[in-house]
Amino acid sequence: MPVEVIMPKVDMDMASGRIAVWHVEAGARVEKSEALFDIETDKAAMEVESPASGTLHHVIAEAGSEVAIGQPVAWIYADGEAVGPRPDGTAGGTNDDHGPQASASDDGMSGKARPPAPSSPEEPAKRTPEPAPSGVGSALPAALSHAVPPRGTLPRATPKARRLARDNGLEIAAIDGNGPRGRIQAGDVARHLEALSRPETASAAPLHWSPEAGPLSVLRSGKGDKTPIVLLHGFASDGASWAPLLASLPTGHPVYRIELPSHGRSPRRRIASFAELVRDMRQAFDGLGLQQAHLVGHSLGGAVAAALADTRARRIASLTLFNPAGLGPEINGPALAGIARATRAESLAPWLKLLPADEETITSNYVRSVMLARADPALRAAQADLAGHLFPDGVQAFSIAAALDRIELPTRIIWGKRDRIIPWSHALRAPGRISLNLFENAGHLPHIELAGQIGILFADMK
Amino acid sequence: MNMDAGTLARPEQETRELSYAEAIREAMDIALAADERVVLMGEDIGVYGGAFQVTGDLVHKYGTDRVIDTPISELGGAGVAVGAAMTGLRPIFEFQFSDFATLAMEQIVNQAAKVRYMLGGAVSVPVVMRMPAGSGTGAAAQHSQSLEAWFAHVPGLKVVQPSTPEDAKGLLLAALEDPDPVLIFEHKLLYKMKGEVPAGHYLTPIGKAAIRRKGTDLTIVATSIMVHKALEAAQTLAGEGIEAEVVDLRTIRPIDRETVLGSVRKTSRLLCVYEGVKTLGIGAEISAMVAESDAFDYLDAPIVRLGGAECPIPYNPDLERAAVPQVPDILQAARALAGERV
Amino acid sequence: MPDLLPENTPFAIARYTPDELKAALRKMYLIRKFEEGAEESYTRGLIHGTMHLSIGQEASAVGACMALGDADKITSTHRGHGHCVAKGADVSRMFAEFFGKESGYCRGRGGSMHIADVEKGNLGANGIVGGGLPIAVGAALSAKRLGTGAVTVCFFGDGANNEGAFHEALNMAAIWKLPVVFVCENNKYGMSTSTERSTAVRRIATRADAYAMPGVTVDGNDFSAVSEAMDAAVARARAGEGPSLVESMTYRWRGHSKSDRNRYRSKEEIADWMARDPITRMADMLVEHGIATREEIAGLEAGADREIAEAIEFAKTGENPKVAEVTRDVYTEAVQ
Questions:
Q1: Does a structural domain hold residue A58?
Q2: In what order do the strands lie in the sheet with A218-221?
Q3: Is B299's CB within 8 Å of A162's CB?
Q4: C-alpha dist (Å) from residue C300 to B64, C20, C26, C30, C37
Q5: Above 60 in pLDDT, residue A226?
Q6: Which has the higher per-residue pLDDT, C304 or A311?
Q7: Which residues in chain A touch residue B301, judged by CB atoms under 8 angstroms apart?
Q8: What is the DSSP string of B271-324?
Q9: Looking at the partner chain, which of B65, B117, B158 has a beta carbon nearest the beta carbon of C109?
C-alpha cells in the first residue's frame, strides 16, 4: 500500500493549510524525513517532511491550493510497488475533493510541527459532512437566520459591526478591529468604508505603478569559503543600508544582501500579507542555492528572517535579528507612513531622525541620499501599499512568536533600548533560549549606530 | 424632566408640587371619592396612617368601613382582597413592607394571578397591591428587599414601579381601572421626594416606559429609584461628552419592548440598572429581550447589568450602600461602555 | 304547617317542599352518577389528569347549599364536583371541562381542580388546601360593602383547618361580622393523615370558639342534619350577625385521588361508612315521610343516569381549545 501524505495539523486552531511549494515533483524519489512541501497557515509557514521513502505520486494538491487538515495531498509508493489508481478511490481532480474542514481541537500539539502521520486512524481521510439541522431552525425567529455566524474561526466583532459589514457587502474578516481585544466595532467598519470611498488612500496604490515580475535583487560581496551570511534589510530601507556593518563582519564569509520586494532594486510587487512577503523572500533565498547560511535581518527583515528560519532550519546555521518586527502589535505607524510617503528631504528628515538614538547622526546629506534612493514614486507607492497590509492602522498585523517558539538553531536578538519605532521591550517576549543583546545608546538602527561594537558579536562566527 | 412620560393628563390640568407619598394618597382619595367599590385594606393604614404615612388621614374622611385596618394576617388579608376583587370591590391592599408579601405568596401567585385563566376568563381579579420596597432605611434584610422581579415572573400579574410622584399617582389610578391584578412597588426612599403632580384624575399607562433623558451614546434602562441615580450619572457623563439616554421602565410586566429596543437601536449600547439582586433579575430579562430581537444587530458593545449584590441587604450603612448600585457605579459602567466607542 | 307535623319530623321534611326535597335527592344522585361517570371516563383514558371523587359526601354538598340562591357564593375545594352540582351547575359543561374542551366551564383551562360556575355563584374549586378560605371572606366583604345580601359558603376539608389561611380567614370574618359560613367537610383524612394525628382538637367545630363564632358538628351523611345546621348559619349571616363554622362529618368512599392505594384505612371502616350511604338514607327518609315513592325515586336515579350519559356524549364531541390560544385569558386584554 502506498503511504498517504496528508496536510498535517501543526497549529492548535488550524483548520486548513495552503501548500506553498512542493520540493519534490510527482514521479521523483524522496527519502523519508526529506523536505516534501512547504505549508502556510494563517499563522506560520513550515516545511513538511516526507513520511516515507519512495516515489511521489498522485499529487492532488498543487502548490497554492488550500487543503483541510487530515486530507491527503499525495501518496508515496515503495520501490517496486505498482502505481495504480488513486488509493482513496477518487478519480482525477486536484482541488475539487476537499472534505469539510475539521474543527480545531486541543490535542496538546503546539510549537513543533508534527510529522505527518501516515494513515493515522484518528484522522480519517474522508469526513462525513455534518447533517443539516432538522426543522428546529424553521421555528427560530427570522432575526436569527442572519445573526448566527457560520462555524469556524471568525474575527471578534460586535453585532452592529457585523450588520454594517453585511449591509455593505463587506467581509468582516477584511476589517481591522480596534476595540477591546481586537474586537471589530461599528467605528472600524465605518472607517473601512470611508477608506474604500476615498479615491486614493495611504494603502491604496496609485494608478501609475504596476507590479513587476522577476527575481528579487541580491547584492553580493565578501569572499571566502566560510559559511555565507545573508542579510535582510528593514522596511523602507535597502541593501545599501548594511554598508556600515559589512566592514565590521568577520572576513572569509560570502555576504548576500537580498532586497525586499518593492525596495532597492527589487521589482515592485503587490504584496497583501506577511506570508506573501515571506514566500517571495524564500524563493530568493532558495535561489541562492546555499547549503548553509548565517541569516541576519533588521526590523521587518528580522521578522522575515525568523519566518525563513522556521521553514529552512536545515540550511540556517544561525539567526541574528536586529530590532525585529512581529513580536507585538505596537509600532510607530506615523513614522512608517511618513517615511513611505515623503516626497522631499524636508518631509523625510523629521521621520528619519526618529530612527537612531541620537538624531544628530542623521545629517542633511544622509537625508538627501536616502531621498534620492526613494525618488521613484512607484517605489514609494508600492512601499505604502505594503505598509498598509503589514501595518494596518499602525499595528503590526503579523507575529513571529510562534516561529521563534519552534526555531531551535542558535538565535540572537540585538536591540537598541532607545528604539522609537518598535518598543525594545518586545524583545522580552522571545523564548528564553534566544540570546538577547541590548544596547543602551542605540535606537532602531544599532547595526548602523554601533556597527563597530556589533561586529564583535559576530567575531566567533564560523 | 418628564420628557416623554406618556401620561394621559389633560394639557390644561394644573400641577402642584407634591411628595410621592402625597401623590399616592391623592390618587387613593380621588378613587375613594369617585367609586364606592374602592376600599383600602392593610395593616395600620387607619388612624395610624400607614407605616410610611401614605394613607395618612384618609380614614377620617372615608371611615373604617372603607379604610380597613387588617389584623397582621398577610396571607388572609391579601386573600380577602382577592376574593373581594372577584366579587365586585376594587380593593387597594397595602403590604406594610413588600417583604411581607412572602407570607402571602399563595394568594398572590396561586390565586390572584391564575384565577382568571383557570376559570377560562369567567372572572377577573381587579386587585391593587401596594408594596413599599427597597433599601436605604437601615431596616436590614427583612424590610429592605426589592422582590419585584419575583412577581414579574408570574403571568397574570402586572407589576409597576413608579419613580416620580406624577407616575405614582397616575399608575395607581391606572391600576384601579385595570381589570387584572396590579402590584405597585413603591420605593421607600422616594416617599418624601417632591415633584410636579397634575391635579385631578389622570392615568399613567401601564406597560409604557418613559424616556427621562435623551441621549445618543448609550441607553441606561433603570427602574424606580435607580432612574434618579441614572439621571444624576447622566448629567456628569454629559460633562464628559457622553450622552446617556435614560429609560424609566415604569412597568416591568408587561415590559415596554418598543421603547427599550428603539433606544438600543439608536445608541447601540445598553446598561441596565436596578436595585433587585442582579442575578436572574430585571436586567437579565431586558438583556435577553435585546439579544433576542433585531436590536441585537445594533449592539456595538456587550450589555452591562448593575443590580443588587448577591447578599441580603445589610444593616451597616456603608454595607447597605454597597449592596445596591450607586451613582459612581453607574458612572464607572457607563464610561467603560462609552469608552468602547471607536 | 310545621305545627301539624309529628314532633320528631326531620328538619328538612318540615322546612322544604316535596319538590325541593325530590330535587335535592335528584342532585345527590347526579353527583353520585357524575363521580362514577368521571371515574369510568378516567379508566377509559378519556380524562387527562387526576381527580378527587366525593362519592359518599353527597348529602353534605347538597344539604349545605339548600339555603342558598343563585346570588349567593360558594368557594370550593379540590374535591369540588359535588359542590358544583349542588350549586346548580350543568353537568354537560362540567364533563366538557374534564375532557378539556372549549365548551367546558373553564374552556379547558382549569380541569377538575378548578371547576367553577361563576354565574351560579360558584367562585371555583381550588387546588391549594385552604386557598378558598380568604377568598370566601373577601366575597363576603364585597357582599357587605355593596349591600347585595349575598351569603358565601366556604367549603373546605379537615386538612385545611390546620392551614394558617383557615385561622386568618375565620378571624377576619369574625372581627368584621361578615356573611360567610365555613363548612368543614370532615372526611377524617387529609390525604392519608387522620384528623386524630393532624388536629389537636377532637372536634374541629370547637375551633369556632377561638374566633367567637358558633360552631356545630353534624352528621354529614344526614341530609336533614346538614341542611338544618346550614339553615341557621346562613340565616345568621344574612342577618348581619357574622360567620359560623359547621363541621360536617362524612366520608369519601374512594381514595384521596386516583393514585391512592388506600393503605391508611381498613376495609371494615370503609364498609361501615358505605352502610351509612347518604343517598339511601335520604331516599328512605322521603319514602318514610310520604314525600316520594320508590318508583319515583327509581325514576330520579334513572333520570340522573340519562343526564350523565348525555353529558359525557356532549363532552366527547366538544371542540378542543386552539393551541394558538394558550395564553388567552391570562389578562383581560392580551399583553405581550
A1: yes
A2: A218-221, A255-258, A229-232, A293-298, A316-322, A411-416, A435-439
A3: no
A4: 51, 13, 6, 9, 17
A5: yes
A6: C304
A7: 158, 179, 185
A8: EEEEEEESTTSHHHHHHHHHHHSGGGGG--S--EEEEE-SSPPPSSHHHHHHTS
A9: B117
Q: How many domains does chain A have?
A: 3
Please check the confidence at residue A151 and state whether its pLDDT lies above 50. no
Q: Is B292 on the interface with C (CB under 8 A)?
A: no
Write out the three cell numbers for B25: 394618597
CB spacing of B298 vs A160 below 8 angstroms:
yes
Query: Are C145 and B84 inside 8 Å of each other by CB?
Result: yes
Going by pLDDT thresholds of 50, 70 and 90, the confidence category of residue B287 is very high
Instruction: Look up residue A286 and give its three cell numbers.
Output: 532558495
Q: How many CB pairs under 8 A join A and B?
A: 42
Q: Is C139 part of any domain?
A: yes
Determine the pLDDT at residue A360. 82
| Residues A187, A91 share a domain | no
- Assess whether B187 carries a catalytic annotation: no
pLDDT digit string, tens, across residues B137-194: 999 999 999 999 999 999 999 999 999 999 999 999 999 999 999 999 999 999 999 9
**Residues within 8 A of B (CB atoms), A 114-143 only:** 141, 143
Contact across the interface for A186 and B293, Cβ inside 8 Å: no
Predicted confidence (pLDDT) at residue C136 exceeds the cutoff of 50 = yes
In a domain, A373, yes or no: yes
Q: What is the mean pLDDT of residues A412-430?
A: 92
**Residue C33 dihedral angles phi and psi, to the nearest 5°:** -70, -35
- The reply to whether C208 falls in a domain is yes
Q: What is the pLDDT of residue A90?
A: 62
Task: Provide the residue range defining the domain that includes A24.
Answer: 1-119
pLDDT, greater one: A80 or B111: B111
Query: What is the domain range of residue C149?
Result: 24-315
Phi, psi (rounded to 5 degrees) for B19: -80, 165
A298 and A444 inside one domain: yes
Architecture of the domain delimited by B16-198:
3-Layer(aba) Sandwich (3.40)
Topology (CATH level 3) of domain B210-338: Rossmann fold (3.40.50)
Question: What is the per-residue pLDDT across C301-320, written as a single tens digit (0 to 9) for each?
Answer: 999 999 999 999 999 999 99
Catalytic residue (choose from B22, B94, B143, B245): B143
Q: What is the CATH number of the domain that holds C269?
A: 3.40.50.970
